[in-house]
Design brief:
Blueprint (H helix, E strand, L loop, with lengths): L2 E2 L2 E3 L2 E3 L6 E6 L4 E7 L3 H20 L2 H17 L1 H12 L3 H18 L2 H4 L4 E6 L2 E9 L2 E5 L7 H12 L3 E5 L6 H12 L7 E3 L4 H9 L5 E5 L2 H13 L3 E5 L4 E5 L5 H13 L9 E7 L1 H16 L19 H17 L2 E4 L18 E4 L6 H4 L6 E7 L2 H10 L2 E2 L1 E5 L3 H10 L4 E4 L15 E2 L2 E2 L6 H7 L1 E9 L19
Parallel strand pairs: 1-5, 8-9, 8-11, 9-10, 11-12, 13-14, 13-19, 14-17, 16-17, 19-20
Antiparallel strand pairs: 2-3, 4-5, 6-7, 7-23, 12-22, 15-16, 18-21
The protein binds nicotinamide-adenine-dinucleotide.
Length: about 500
């Protein structure tokens, strides 16, 4: 029987009140595994009211006490790891090992947020003028919303809510409607960890729910992670309604292969980063830029058999290196891009379009695809495919490689593979990219640094988690006071500074 999922509001599961439901699939079999309620604007407004009502008490709870909930949550995640990974994989399709890895990356943000008393420590300046002291504090922004993508249903929500609630905010999570079960379970575990009712709420839904979060005056800040067209819409609509917004978006990540790169290491890096999680990662490498024709020839020749040999399988096959794509619609889109690449004249060296997995004929599987001789005006180069498709672009020299990276509209991640320190340093300094790898293909920053791209990969001033995350979820307040208050200075009409004698 197909189960009906709920929302999670005010500390308990809440059934959908409307008639609208979405299908959630097991992508390995193609079967519908559950129905997810798609909240109406009224249901979302009700959840916002809960978050508003809960805010004053939670914001006034001492930071060290708020951190206790996160310590307990951390322990619960670890003890439930197998259950969580299964719940994630069965709806997303990625392998269990990959699912566990992504939950662990989210857990690192929880660990970071456990240090919130230290992170919220402000500055104090004694004697900024005679008898005048100044101090700065960071206070919660208020009611925060998180709108998250399908590809990391644990990690991306955990980039957001642990930091937000640690800072004293209340939170509404609107997860992807494609794999909502894990985010719901995370909210239950936060509750079990001691979070008061109403601090973390999960509302399932689609555009209608999102639009209410973006326009309702009860929401103060919105974090979004997803594709660029939607992210741009979220940023424009949210800021037009007076909200603080950060929108982390799409990508086309280049890996530049210099002639002196270690070939074996580069090939391993490309196979893992282009085809891991079936390419459904915003930090997946989707373009290999080879500098000089010799490098291009050798790379493609040695890469092709590795791509052909990729082992596809359902999430619970321990041998599987790559699972299915998330939905049939997405599979059709990725196949369509490969068709386009062929029409555009790129050389399809490995064609995974018609791969069928025995026993999983209705699953959303596609084999690895490898294109050579891709050029910058092709759609398969310009657009994010979000599948297991790697394009090789050949350039004549290092300067052309830097130019190519900088000219692309996206600026999430890029890497250079080289043994030369000068090249590595020059690349890191000059590329207009938010996260740069030197002989590291997927340079995802650790939790105490911040994650975020440049150009059309991020809208808004803040990256996510780390210090930037704390700043996004707090407002700075600076207090200037005079003690003893009894000293009379008379009326002062001009600005004056403590440095004046
Ligand atoms: P998506 O943009 O389709 O959906 C993201 C969220 O927006 C979901 O919760 C969805 O319900 C909601 N949404 C979808 N259409 C909407 C609309 N018309 N109006 C309002 N809300 C809408 O993204 P996806 O397919 O779930 O995820 C893949 C994308 O996410 C890729 O582009 C990937 O690069 C990106 N991503 C980026 C990062 C990053 O940190 N930069 C991380 C992970 C994923």
């Amino acid at each position: 029987m197909v189960v009906k999922l709920n929302h999670f509001i005010d500390g308990k599961p809440v059934a959908g009140k409307g008639a609208r439901y979405g299908d959630v699939f097991n992508p390995a079999t193609g079967e519908v595994s559950s129905h997810v309620p798609l909240a109406s604007a009224e249901e979302v407004a009700g959840a916002i009211a809960v978050a508003q009502r809960t805010l004053p008490d939670w914001a006034a709870t001492p930071a060290a006490q708020r951190a206790q909930v996160l310590f307990a949550f951390r322990a619960l995640i670890r003890s439930h790891m197998d259950e969580l990974a299964e719940l994630l994989s069965i709806e997303h399709g990625k392998t269990l090992a990959d699912a566990k890895g992504s939950i662990t990356r989210g857990l690192e943000v929880v660990e970071f947020a456990c240090g919130i008393p230290h992170l919220l420590k402000g500055g104090y300046s004694e004697g900024v003028a005679r008898n005048v002291d100044s101090y700065a504090v960071r206070q919660p922004v208020g009611v925060c919303a998180g709108i998250t993508p399908f590809n990391f249903p644990a990690m991306v929500p955990m980039w957001m809510f642990p930091v937000a609630v640690a800072c004293g905010n209340t939170f509404l999570l609107k997860p992807s409607e494609k794999d909502p079960s894990l985010p719901l379970r995370l909210a239950e575990l936060m509750q079990e960890a001691g979070l008061p009712d109403g601090v973390l709420n999960v509302v399932n839904g689609d555009k209608e729910a999102v639009d209410e979060l973006l326009t309702n005056p009860g929401v103060d800040a919105v974090s979004f992670v997803g594709s660029t067209p939607i992210g741009e819409y979220i940023y424009r609509t949210g800021t037009a309604h007076g909200k603080r917004v950060q929108a982390l978006c799409g990508a086309k990540n280049h890996l530049v292969v210099m002639p002196d790169a270690d070939v074996e290491q580069t090939i391993d890096a490309l196979v893992g980063s282009a085809y891991g999680s079936a390419g459904e990662r915003c930090m997946a490498v989707s373009v290999a830029v080879t500098v000089g024709d010799e490098v291009g020839d050798e790379l493609v020749e040695r890469l092709a058999p590795r791509v052909e040999a990729l082992k596809l399988g359902p999430y619970n096959d321990p041998e599987a290196e790559m699972g299915p794509l998330v939905t049939r619609e997405h599979l059709d889109k990725v196949r369509g891009y490969v068709d386009t690449g062929v029409k555009e004249g790129a050389k399809l060296v490995v064609d995974g379009r018609d791969v069928v997995l025995q026993g999983y004929e209705n699953g959303f599987f596609i084999g690895g695809c490898l294109f050579d001789h891709v050029t910058p005006e092709m759609r398969i180069y310009k657009e994010e495919i979000f599948g297991p498709v790697l394009s090789v672009v050949r350039v004549k020299d290092y300067e052309s490689a830097v130019q190519l990276v900088n000219d692309h509209e996206y600026g999430n991640g890029a890497a250079v593979f080289t043994r030369d320190g000068d090249t590595a340093r020059n690349f890191a300094n000059r590329v207009r990219i938010g996260m740069v790898g030197v002989n590291v293909p997927i340079p995802v920053p650790v939790a105490y640094h911040s994650f975020g791209g440049w150009k059309r990969s991020l809208f808004g001033a803040h990256s996510i988690h780390g210090t930037e995350g704390v700043h996004f979820y707090t407002r700075l307040k600076t207090i200037t006071g005079r003690w003893p208050s009894g000293i009379r200075e008379g009326a002062v009409f001009n600005f004056h500074s403590g440095s004046e004698t």
